[in-house]
Amino acid sequence: MIYSSIGYYALIFGMIISFPIIFFSIKNLRNAKILDNKIINFSFIQLLLVIISFLGLILSFVYSDFSNETVFNNSHTTKPLFYKISGTWGNHEGSLLLWLLVLTLFIFIFLIRSNGLLKNYRILTVMFQQIIILGFFVFLIKSSNPFNYIFPVPDEGLGLNPILQDPALAIHPPILYLGYVGSSIIFSSVLAATSLNYISKTWATHIKRWVLASWIFLTLGILLGSIWAYYELGWGGFWFWDPVENVSLMPWLALTTLLHCVLVLEKRSTLSSWIIILSIATFTLSMSGTFLVRSGILNSVHTFANDPERGLFILIFLLILILISFIIFLIFHKNEKKKLISFSFLSKETSILINNWFMMYFLSVILIGTIYPIFLDVISSEKISVGPPFYHKLIVPFLIPFLIFMALGSQLRWIRSNLDGKLYLIIFFILSLSMSALIVKYLSIDYLINTILIGSAFYLFFVTIRDFFQEKFANISQTISHFGFSLLILSILFNNIFSKEIITNLKVGEKFKNEKFQIVFDDLKKFEKKNYVSFKGYFLIKENEFEDKLEPELRVYNQPNITTSEADIKTSFLNDKFITMNTVQNEEHFNIRYQVKPFMLWIWISVILISFGGTISLLKKKGT
Amino acid sequence: MYGRKVKLRFFFVTLILLILILTTFLVLKSLEENVVYFKSPSDVKVLEELENKKIRIGGMVKEKSIKISNLGVNFIITDFKNEINVTYSGAVPNLFTEGKGVVAEGYLKDENFFEASKILAKHDENYMPPEVKEALDNK
């Protein structure tokens, strides 16, 4: 009770604080030479109030205060404490409050970390950010208040969807949101810098850190979601081209492109139009990502029951923001002064630019695949879905030139490069191609495209490995990330080619047998747990000589009454063995799915490597 | 005539336009080939010809229709007007039960038989695929 009220009033006061901030910002814009400390102080107070509000919601969850509607809808007294806390952001209202918290946190960090930059630029950034913050305050208080009161107070809550009761998914939203919301700072900052014509090398060095930070969090956030989907949904895949997944990949692509453009700007003061448009795009995609996931508009297998009305507000708000930003772009943006910023065809700039276009192409394909069904539904009420073959067909072939340019780009110099001493590039290329040709032939998969694709992934792999030894840590962050990417593509390819799957229906004591595998369903045991009943299956799996014991689980949760299946996964360096079981209409047969997935571990490791490269770059001292 | 620079620029613009047209064509063609349409059992009955294309069928699993064996699962999808028999031999999602909503993806054998290659999961007992909801609302 008390925590909810504190949280609610903290939220209201937090919103009111926005006005003095905007007021002092406008005043400060004209007069003084230095930034008014009042702005920083008020931003700090606002941050504190939002933190208090968020803590209020967490405590309401911890103490299971069911007079709070959000707690009632999403919690239950028998839920473990950890999931009571993570339940705070596992729902629409709480997750928006988290958005707001990160928004206010980031603008405060921005203020204290941007000393020494142009005063008016700092103020304008604060003002643009405050518009976004104010929008979120209004939205929260008006249409998704996390502190709604219900009377009479219910004795028990409805509980959190059991598949969300999972450690990876408990931290997935906060990490992902750090990435999403980081793009809001980039957005505000770009608008401010455009209005003041401040887009320069100094600005690039400063904004690069924000881009990197958001990019790292977004990468890790997507990784966590993917790992969760892999072991919790029991399909044994890590990426389904599901709309909800796509909306997190799209801002990632835009942000990755932006990151490379900012690097070019920092070194060569060019590509500023790209940067402005990409920043706007990243933020738009992040926000519409949140909107689409929560609105129920997407026809996704991940969709949870929710309310489309709420989405409308975010959509209108978003449209206004896009409109403002485009007006600013058109009015203030002066095209690069004709300073003869030219570069030859054979340079780092060219290869970065080419790959930017490729990434924009990937982004458009995903965008079309994601929104076309919505579009068609609106105009013709025809229901369709766009499946993985669409994405595979349009993206996979273009990965070949993409990988090759990625390998070449890092070997070229800025402005103009020559091919002296670059013989190794050709040798590596022939080597990779012949290697992949051998692999493909050995496996008797007769796809030409496979050979070239694996070959170009190997190419990037070898070129980056050479960089580790040759470049003496000159560009270690880039090398690690690019190496991670080549490893990712290779692991995904081999994972796809070598995966094996057996699906069968078995009773306890029965046996499945084919030429290679034997699956024995030994036993089924029942365990009572705190908030669920667990049925554990004991399986013995024989593959040729090897034997494995796997124990998948079925959990029947009490509140809400949902059955989930917990996969049992044996992970090793070479492959994952993955088994799930399901009941069918409470009959004696269980639906068993057994999969051998090679290189799964390497998919996760390579994504961690990709973001690790970014982290090194972020932590590197300036000037080195 | 025109200078070398102008010619070069003209060449680039044409190249970019060509690439743009080519990709648009590619994307649209691929979209056409890979789109999966959603039908209700009643929609299937009024189909004029059976195309060999992947579709999704949604509705409710008919009570007492699930039959399971070592080889697979058979059941009936109904929208309370028409029914369709489904054969399936794959992994079954958790919330697949009689009397609940289901979406099956696969190929039509004829207007009464459907061979599913995938049954879609849902995560939430309150959640019903939007298509199923609509199909049921329309009845």
Q: Could you write a compact summary of the structure shown?
A:
Chain A is α+β, with helices and mostly antiparallel strands and 624 residues long. Chain A has helices at residues 2-30, 37-62, 69-74, 81-86, 92-113, 119-143, 167-195, 201-232, 243-268, 272-295, 308-332, 348-380, 388-409, 423-442, 448-470, 476-498, 600-619; strands at residues 384-386, 500-506, 511-513, 517-528, 532-543, 546-550, 553-557, 563-566, 568-571, 575-583, 590-598.
Oligomer: heterodimer
Q: Outline of chain A, from the CA principal axes?
A: flat
Biggest sheet of chain B: strands side by side, in what order? 2-4-5-7-6
Mean pLDDT of chain B: 80
Instruction: Give the % helix of chain A.
Output: 55-70%
Task: Provide the gyration radius of chain B in Å.
Answer: 23 Å
Silhouette of chain B: elongated
Mean pLDDT level of chain A: 86
Q: Fraction of residues of chain B in helices? A: 25-40%
Continuous helix count of chain A:
17
Strand content of chain A: 5-15%
Coarse structural class of chain A: alpha+beta
> What's the CATH class of the largest domain in chain B, please?
Mainly Beta
H/E topology pattern of chain B: HEHEEEEEEH
Number of helices of chain B: 3
Please compute the radius of gyration of chain A using only Cα atoms: 26 Å
How many distinct domains of chain B? 2
| CATH fold label of the largest domain in chain B | OB fold (Dihydrolipoamide Acetyltransferase, E2P)
Description of the molecule:
- The complex is a heterodimer of chains A (624) and B (139).
- Chain A is 63% helix and 12% strand.
- Chain A has 624 residues and is α+β, with helices and mostly antiparallel strands.
- In chain A, the strands form 2 sheets. In chain A, strands 3, 4, 5, 6, 7 and 8 form a 6-stranded antiparallel sheet that branches. Chain A has a 4-stranded antiparallel sheet with strand order 2-11-10-9.
- The longest helix of chain A is centred in the middle third of the chain and has 33 residues, at 348-380.
- The mean pLDDT of chain A is 86.
- In chain B, strand 6 and strand 7 form a beta hairpin.
- The mean pLDDT of chain B is 80.
- Chain B is built from 3 helices and 7 strands; from the N terminus they run H-E-H-E-E-E-E-E-E-H.
- Chain B has 2 domains: 1-34; 37-137, OB fold (Dihydrolipoamide Acetyltransferase, E2P), CATH 2.40.50.
- Chain A binds chain B through residues 161, 163, 233-235, 296, 299, 301-305, 361, 364-365, 368-369, 372, 382-387, 389-390, 393-394, 503-506, 510, 512, 560-565, 580, 582, 584-585, 587, 589, 591, 593, and chain B through 23, 26-27, 30-31, 33-38, 54, 56, 66, 68-73, 89-98, 120-127, 129-131, 134.
